[in-house]
Amino acid sequence: MSYNLGFIGGGNMSTAIFQGILRNGDHPASKIWVSGPHLENLLHWKELGANITNKNGDIYSTCDMIFLGVKPQFLSNAISDCYNTLPLNMPAKKVLFVSILAGTNIEQLHKALSILPGEKQVIRTLPNTPMAVGAGACLYTPDNSVTEEQCRKVEILLSGCGVCEKVAEHLIASLGSLIGCGPAFMYIAIEALADGAVKQGAPRALAMRLAAQMVMGSGKMVLGNTKHPGLLKDEVCSPGGSTICGVTALEQGKFRATLINAIEAAVLRTKEMEKK
């Protein structure tokens, strides 16, 4: 790939994507640029071979594809800095922006980017934090001007961090809450399961490690199997056994309904954020 790849914002998610790209060898570090207000916070990028700058305009003038990795409330300031630090007499160009901003839709992104010269294309993404360990999930939706080839390039870049799924934008709220908020829900489940074992006398560190391993393995069972999760559950539940007694306790505690309500609450909040 001969194009220059940029990041406006070098925070945790941008760093995870950057490291995934290097891990897969999908793009040379020497052709990756990142900007941030404090260069000292970008030294880990430089150590891995990337180019760093404190001027967002350098990213726009140099790169053909740019990941937007600032917090949503700082988007306007980041784009203003991009405009104010552009080189003089910069020729018109086409740039593909890949946004990782939560709660910011394609229309809002185009509005924010409209002050920049040239043609701007937009892909909206929603990655989750497990991308930092190469086991994440990322949704993306392109605007009408983005080509299939460009979508494929983005998929390749993100594949080093986990799975990448193209969806219609109206599904970002529901599926995005599932993959984006879901890890927090699973961390609570892991902690609670470990607490349950500790209550019965198990060492905490070992209980936590085994709870996490069990959740990871259960996920792999679902992904690598054509069987419905309900059937996999049934296969563990022997008649009159320990598991079905535990499942009964979960049902009495409205475990399913609580998870459904958690996703619903997260989706409603996401939709509220998009209206602001």
Automatic annotation (TrEMBL):
Residues bound to NADP(+): 8-13
Family: Belongs to the pyrroline-5-carboxylate reductase family.
Catalytic activity: L-proline + NAD(+) = (S)-1-pyrroline-5-carboxylate + NADH + 2 H(+); L-proline + NADP(+) = (S)-1-pyrroline-5-carboxylate + NADPH + 2 H(+)
Alphabetical list of NCBIfam families matching this protein: proC
EC number: 1.5.1.2
GO cellular component entries: cytoplasm
GO biological process: L-proline biosynthetic process
Major localization listed first in the record, in broad terms: cytoplasm
Descriptive protein name: Pyrroline-5-carboxylate reductase
SUPFAM superfamilies on file: 6-phosphogluconate dehydrogenase C-terminal domain-like (SSF48179), NAD(P)-binding Rossmann-fold domains (SSF51735)
A Pfam match: P5CR_dimer
Boundaries of every Pyrroline-5-carboxylate reductase dimerisation domain copy: 169-273
Binding-site list for NADPH: 56
Organism, as annotated: Pieris macdunnoughi
